[in-house]
Write a structure and sequence with these properties.
Elements (H helix, E strand, L loop, with lengths): L2 H10 L2 H25 L4 H24 E4 L2 E4 L11 H28 L10 E2 L10 E4 L3 E2 L7 H15 L6 E3 L1 H4 L9 H8 L3 E10 L2 E10 L4 E11 L6 H12 L6 H8 L6 H14 L6 H17 L4 H17 L4 H17 L4 H15 L2 H14 L4 H13 L3 H14 L4 H13 L3 H14 L4 H15 L3 H8 L10 H12 L3 H10 L4 E3 L5 E3 H12 L2 H21 L4 H14 L2 H14 L8 H15 L3 H11 L15 H6 L10 H8 L9
Parallel strand pairs: 4-6, 4-7, 5-7
Antiparallel strand pairs: 1-2, 3-9, 7-8, 8-9, 10-11
C-alpha cells in the first residue's frame, strides 16, 4: 500500500479520532485514579499497574480502529466495507462531539486539580500563586496530617512529619506559628477553615497527607489562605524513606516564600540542617516524639520515649535533635516521677552532647534550661538557656511555657501569669499552656479561673483522664463536696489505671468519705504493687492499706502495714536524697509510726531542701506535710500556727492528703487530731482567706 492510500485509509477508518479520543480518556482516567486511589488507601504499586495498562491499551485501540468499523448494521471488519459504505458524515460528527465532550471534561478536571492542588503521586513540581497584600499576615497553623497508609500503625509517622514541619517553621522569626498541641484535635482537611483560623488567630493554614508504604513515602502539602480559601502554594513529595530527610526544611522555606517572610542566614542554615541521614533512626525518633508529647504526662509514656530515643541514638550517635529530646524527656521523668541521680546525670549529658554536636540547636538549649530548672533549681541559668532557645526557636510554644513556669516557681507570680497570658495569645489552644495556667490559678486558690482553664483543656482533650480527675478536685476545694470526684472516677473506663493514678484517687476520695470498704475495694482491684500518688511519689500498697486500717479503727494492723511499707519509702529517699517531697512523705510515715524525732527530722529536712522562698510550689508542699506531721504527733499549737500561715500561701494546695484548703481541713480524716481545738474550729468556721502573692 502506497503512503497516500495508507493515509487515506487511516482517515477513512477513523484511526486519528480514536487516537485522540483514547489519549484524552486515558488522561482523564489517570487523573481520576490519582485522586481516588489514595482515598481508598491503595498501595503505590496499584497506580503503577493501572498506568501501565492504560499505556499498553493505546496500540490495541489503534489496531482495533484499523481492523473494524462501526456501521448501522453493527461492527464489521474494515476490509468488508466498501469506501462508499463507510460511516456517514453524521456519524463522524458524533465522533467529533464525543471527542469535544471528553476534552471539556478533561479541562474541567484540570481546573479541579488546580483548585485542590492535587497531583500525580510522582510529581514534585510546586504550584504557587503570586503573593498578594492579604499574604502579608505571616501567621500559620499546621493542621494534623492525614494518614493515608494502609497500615494504621503508621499514624505516628504522619503526626511526626507534621510535628517536624512545625518545629522547622518555629525557627523562622518572620512567621508566627501555632503549635501542634493547639491544632491536634482538628480534622486533617476541615470544611470550616475560616472558623478554625479565627479560633487559632491565624490567617493561613497548612493541610497535608502522608502515605507510607514500605520504604516509600508520599507527602502532599498545601498552604491555604483561610479567609477566602485561596491556595497559595502546594507540592507533592514522593521519596524513598532514606531520602525523606530535609522535606521539612523544603516545606518551611516554601511557606516562608509564599508569605514573604525573609530568612536570615542563620535561620536558613537552621532550616536546611537535616536532623539525621539514618532512616531507621528517624522512624524511631518519630515514634519517641509520639510518646513524649502525649498530654497526660504519664511515667510509662516518658519511659517509652526514652527507650526509643536511646535506640535512635545507637543507630546515629550524631543525631543532635534526638539527644536534645532525650534530655528533655528525662528531665520530665525526673521532675514528675523519679528524681534519681541516674536520670539527672543522663539529662545533663544528653543536653551537653546535643549542643556539642550542634552548638546553636534551640532544642539543646531548651533541654539544658529544663535541666537547670528541674534538677538544679538554678532559675537564672534556666532563664539564660531559655533565652538562647528563644533566639533559635522564636515560635516554639514550649520556650514561652517553660519561661512562665520558671517565673512561677521562683515566686514571681504576677509576671508568671502575664507570661502565661502572653503565651496563650500566641498559641491560643495549646492545652499544655492552658493546663499550666489553670494550675497556677488553682495554686492561688482562684477556683473559678482554675476550673475554667481546666474546662478549656478538657474541651480540647476530653479523654485526658488526669485532668478530668483534677478538675473534680478543684470543684471539691471550691464547694466542699466529694461528689464531683466520684462522678469523674465513675465516668472513666473500668480498666483505665496508668501508674495507679486512678486507684489513688478512688482510695483518696473514699477515705475522705470515711468509706473504708470502697477504699479497700479500689486497692484490691488494682494489679500494681506500687501506686503513684498525685505528688508523684510511688507508694506501696501496704502504706495505703494502713490508712484504711486506721480509719476503720484497727490501729495495731495499721502499724504492721506502715512498718511493711517503711523499707520501700526509705529507699525512695536513699535513691533521691535531695528530693524534698520524698523526705516529707517519709516524715509523715514516721509520724504515723509514732517515731516523733525521725518524723520531725525528715519534715524539717524537706523544708531545708526546698525552702518556700526559693521554690514556692514544692516548698509549700513540704510545709503542708510538716503541718500534718505536727498534727499527727500531737503538736497542736505548731500545727494550727502553720495552718493559719499556709491558708493564704500560694500553692499550699495539692491533690493529696497534706493539702491545706478549708475543704481539705473540714473533710479529711488526717486532720482529726485537731478537731476539738477551738482555734481549729474557728478556722473551719471562717471564710477562706485571700491568697497573698506578688
Amino acid at each position: 500500500m502506497d503512503p497516500a492510500t495508507f493515509l487515506t485509509e487511516l482517515k477513512r477508518r477513523k484511526v486519528y479520532r480514536v487516537a485522540v479520543a483514547y489519549a484524552i480518556v486515558a488522561w482523564l482516567l489517570i487523573q481520576a485514579a490519582s485522586i481516588l486511589f489514595p482515598t481508598f488507601e491503595a498501595p503505590p504499586w496499584v497506580m503503577k499497574v493501572f498506568v501501565t495498562a492504560v499505556i499498553l491499551g493505546f496500540p490495541v485501540a489503534l489496531i482495533l480502529a484499523w481492523a473494524f468499523e462501526l456501521t448501522p448494521e453493527g461492527i464489521k471488519r474494515a476490509e468488508e466495507i466498501p469506501p462508499r459504505e463507510s460511516k456517514t458524515p453524521r456519524a463522524g460528527r458524533k465522533w467529533t462531539a464525543i471527542i469535544v465532550a471528553a476534552a471539556v471534561l478533561a479541562t474541567a478536571l484540570l481546573a479541579f486539580q488546580f483548585a485542590r492542588t492535587r497531583k500525580p503521586a510522582t510529581a514534585e513540581l510546586p504550584k504557587q500563586i503570586g503573593p498578594t497584600a492579604a499574604t502579608t499576615d505571616k501567621s500559620v497553623a499546621v493542621l494534623p496530617f492525614e494518614n493515608l497508609s494502609s497500615d494504621k500503625e503508621n499514624a505516628f509517622f504522619a503526626q511526626g512529619i507534621q510535628d517536624e514541619i512545625i518545629t522547622t517553621l518555629s525557627r523562622i522569626s518572620g512567621l508566627r506559628v501555632i503549635s501542634r498541641t493547639s491544632t491536634a484535635h482538628y480534622k486533617s482537611a476541615p470544611e470550616n477553615l475560616s472558623e478554625i483560623a479565627r479560633q487559632l488567630r491565624v490567617s493561613n493554614m497548612l493541610e497535608g497527607s502522608v502515605q507510607k508504604a514500605g520504604d516509600r513515602v508520599h507527602i502532599n502539602v498545601q498552604l491555604i489562605r483561610a479567609d477566602d480559601d485561596a491556595h497559595l502554594w502546594a507540592q507533592s513529595y514522593d521519596r524513598q524513606l532514606t531520602d525523606i530527610f530535609g522535606v521539612e526544611g523544603e516545606v518551611a522555606k516554601s511557606i516562608a516564600d509564599s508569605l514573604q517572610a525573609t530568612l536570615s542566614p542563620q535561620e536558613k542554615a537552621r532550616v536546611e540542617t537535616k536532623p539525621t541521614t539514618n532512616a531507621d533512626a528517624y522512624v524511631l525518633y518519630l515514634r519517641a516524639r509520639d510518646y513524649q508529647t502525649r498530654p497526660d504526662n504519664l511515667m510509662q509514656d516518658f519511659k517509652s520515649a526514652i527507650n526509643l530515643y536511646d535506640q535512635a541514638i545507637k543507630l546515629d550517635p550524631n543525631f543532635a535533635l534526638a539527644h536534645a529530646r532525650l534530655s528533655a524527656t528525662t528531665s520530665n521523668l525526673y521532675h514528675f516521677y523519679e528524681p534519681t541521680e541516674t536520670w539527672k546525670q543522663k539529662a545533663y549529658a544528653e543536653a551537653l552532647e546535643s549542643l556539642r554536636l550542634q552548638p546553636n540547636l534551640g532544642e539543646g538549649h531548651l533541654a539544658l534550661g529544663l535541666y537547670h530548672y528541674y534538677m538544679e533549681g538554678d532559675y537564672d541559668a534556666a532563664l539564660h538557656e531559655l533565652a538562647l532557645a528563644a533566639e533559635a526557636l522564636p515560635n516554639d510554644g514550649d520556650v514561652g511555657l517553660y519561661t512562665a513556669a520558671v517565673l512561677r516557681r521562683s515566686g514571681h507570680l504576677t509576671e508568671a501569669l502575664a507570661a502565661y497570658q502572653h503565651a496563650e495569645q500566641i498559641d491560643p489552644r495549646n492545652s499544655i499552656t492552658l493546663y499550666d495556667s489553670s494550675q497556677t490559678y488553682v495554686g492561688l486558690r482562684d477556683w473559678r479561673k482554675g476550673a475554667g482553664g481546666m474546662d478549656r483543656v478538657l474541651a480540647l482533650f476530653p479523654e485526658s483522664f488526669n485532668v478530668k480527675i483534677q478538675r473534680a478536685y478543684v470543684e471539691f476545694y471550691w464547694k466542699g463536696s466529694t461528689a464531683p470526684i466520684k462522678a469523674a472516677l465513675q465516668s472513666l473506663p473500668r480498666n483505665l489505671d496508668p501508674d495507679g493514678v486512678v486507684t489513688f484517687a478512688r482510695w483518696d476520695v473514699s477515705l475522705m468519705d470515711r468509706d473504708v470498704n470502697a477504699a479497700e475495694k479500689a486497692l484490691v482491684a488494682c494489679q500494681l504493687d506500687t501506686i503513684t500518688s498525685q505528688t508523684g511519689v510511688p507508694l506501696p500498697k501496704s502504706y495505703l492499706q494502713a490508712f484504711i486500717d486506721l480509719v476503720r479503727g484497727d490501729a495495731a494492723k495499721a502499724q504492721t502495714e506502715f512498718e511493711a511499707a517503711r523499707p520501700a519509702i526509705e529507699k525512695l529517699v536513699t535513691d533521691s536524697p535531695r528530693n524534698a517531697t520524698r523526705h516529707a512523705q517519709l516524715g509523715l510515715l514516721f509520724a504515723f509510726l509514732g517515731r516523733k524525732e525521725d518524723a520531725l527530722r525528715e519534715g524539717q529536712r524537706a523544708m531545708e531542701l526546698k525552702p518556700i522562698t526559693h521554690d514556692v510550689i514544692e516548698g509549700a508542699v513540704a510545709e503542708d506535710f510538716y503541718a500534718l506531721i505536727c498534727a499527727r504527733l500531737g503538736l497542736t499549737d505548731e500545727a494550727i500556727s502553720r495552718i493559719e500561715r499556709l491558708l493564704p500561701t500560694p500553692f499550699a494546695v495539692d491533690y493529696a492528703d497534706e493539702s491545706v484548703t478549708l475543704s481539705d481541713l473540714r473533710q479529711r480524716w488526717e486532720w482529726d487530731p485537731l478537731r476539738n481545738d477551738p482555734r481549729f474550729q474557728k478556722i473551719l468556721a471562717s471564710p477562706e482567706p485571700k491568697t497573698v502573692y506578688k
